[in-house]
Specification:
Layout (H helix, E strand, L loop, with lengths): L7 E4 L1 H9 L5 H13 L3 E6 L5 E3 L2 H11 L6 H19 L8 E5 L10 H8 L1 E7 L3 H4 L8 H15 L2 E4 L2 H13 L7 E3 L20 E5 L8 H15 L5 E5 L7 H9 L6 E5 L3 H9 L3 E4 L8 H8 L4 E4 L2 H7 L4 E3 L4 H12 L4 H9 L8 H14 L9
Parallel strand pairs: 1-2, 1-4, 4-5, 5-6, 6-7, 8-9, 8-11, 9-10, 11-12, 12-13
Antiparallel strand pairs: 2-3
């Protein structure tokens, strides 16, 4: 492969800054890493800098960077030392933007799409963007997002609709919402397809599954749209009615935004030992807690996909979730679905699943036998076929 000869281009902007910060991979990060694993061997790197255009790296520098980004670092210092080492060896190439030559530029994250000069750069660099859309929640539910995020995401989505050669959605629901947005703003929609992300298989504890405990788990960043508030209201009633016999709520995830009321209630300790906040946990620890859980709880107001739902079902753990269209899609008829604002229904379902010989829980365990978790081979079989069918310039994918 010569320095400008890879058949594809792949964006690493998000992975670069996430690696530098040495943060635990989120769902979007995992997708970006999977795309890099799959497409990296036949791709060159693209790095987008906010309002400064992009850079296409030569093949050798790209492959060296890919190896660094795919190598887990033991610490932030190690991650930064690796990137500094790459820059010292290959940094001179980073200032030299090569031509895209009409190649597909794959971007599985949203990073860079809010750069005002991105359309001009795409035209000048001669790249054909294939962009993955994860959600447009900052536009449809701005009350649950950081200040200013609605305006930034509108720029991202408008840019996507103007420049994309194709858009890949993480769910059919995401693409339906995108189509509604485009119609409302009289914008064209490029070719689209749905590819559910692969499911990380939680390594459940070896041996016989422990008997179900009295724990219910909510998994993910504590933020407004995840609706922890509903669960705290429910547990307040459960503690009042049942005292020490109430089931236990385990909150796994780091603290986020738009949830000051929830954080204040947790800090006040008003639930005694019936509510436990663990913070972020490693996958093995999450698997150990889920293995004995009565159910995973997922009362979100809005989601683009819902990775904890499919992770739990794949691990054989029942799920009680909001009745969202995307959960109907990816849940395949297995979870118990309830309105996200119906406190009485959630309390009733939780107590039904908490019963030692719960018929409702047993019924969902029966439905679980028909659940098939999305996997990465299936994801890439769909994406590869879609890319190969795009007009012109895709012979390398056939």
């Amino acid at each position: 492969m010569n320095q400008n000869g890879a058949p594809l281009l792949i964006d690493v902007s998000r992975l670069l800054w996430r690696h530098w910060a040495h943060v635990r991979p989120t769902g979007i990060d995992r997708i970006c890493l999977a795309w890099l694993h799959h497409y990296g061997p036949r791709a060159q790197a693209v790095i987008i800098r906010k309002n400064k255009g992009g850079t296409i790296l030569p093949a050798a520098a790209s492959q060296a960077l890919f190896r660094q980004l795919l190598r887990p670092a033991a610490s932030k210092a190690a991650a930064r030392a690796g990137l500094i080492g790459w820059a010292l060896c290959h940094g001179r190439h980073a200032a030299r933007t090569l031509s895209g030559r009409g190649r597909l530029w794959l971007n599985a994250g949203h990073t860079g799409l809010d750069s005002t000069d991105l359309p001009a750069w795409c035209a000048a660099a001669d790249v054909r963007p294939v962009l993955m859309l994860h959600d447009i929640i900052p536009i449809t539910h701005p009350q649950f997002c950081r200040e200013g995020e609605k305006a930034r995401h509108e720029v991202r989505v408008n840019t996507m609709l103007h420049i994309a050669a194709a858009v890949i959605g993480n769910s059919q629901d995401t693409l339906h919402v995108l189509a509604d947005y485009a119609a409302a703003h009289q914008l064209p929609v490029p070719p689209t397809m749905v590819a559910w992300p692969g499911t990380p298989h939680l390594a459940m504890p070896p041996g016989t599954r422990p008997p179900a405990s009295n724990e219910f788990i909510i998994l993910g960043t504590i933020e407004g749209r995840k609706n922890h508030h509903l669960l705290l209201d429910v547990w307040q009633r459960l503690v009042r009615e049942h005292g020490a016999a109430a089931p236990k709520l385990v909150i796994i995830g780091r603290r986020g935004w738009a949830c000051d009321d929830v954080l204040a209630r947790l800090d006040a300790g008003e639930f005694g030992d019936r509510v436990e906040e663990t913070g972020a946990l490693e996958d093995a620890a999450i698997a150990a807690r889920l293995a004995a859980a009565r159910a995973l709880l997922f009362p979100s107001f809005a989601e683009g996909y819902g990775l904890p739902l499919v992770e739990a079902l794949d691990a054989g753990v029942p799920v009680i979730a909001s009745d969202l269209q995307v959960f109907r899609e990816i849940g395949q008829g297995v979870p118990e679905l309830l309105a996200p604002d119906d406190h009485a229904a959630w309390q009733a379902a939780i107590m039904a699943y908490a019963a030692p010989d719960s018929p409702a829980r047993a019924a969902q365990m029966g439905r679980l036998s028909g659940f098939k978790a999305p996997d990465w081979p299936g994801h890439f079989a769909k994406v590869d076929a879609f890319l190969a069918a795009l007009p012109s310039g895709n012979s390398a994918l056939r």
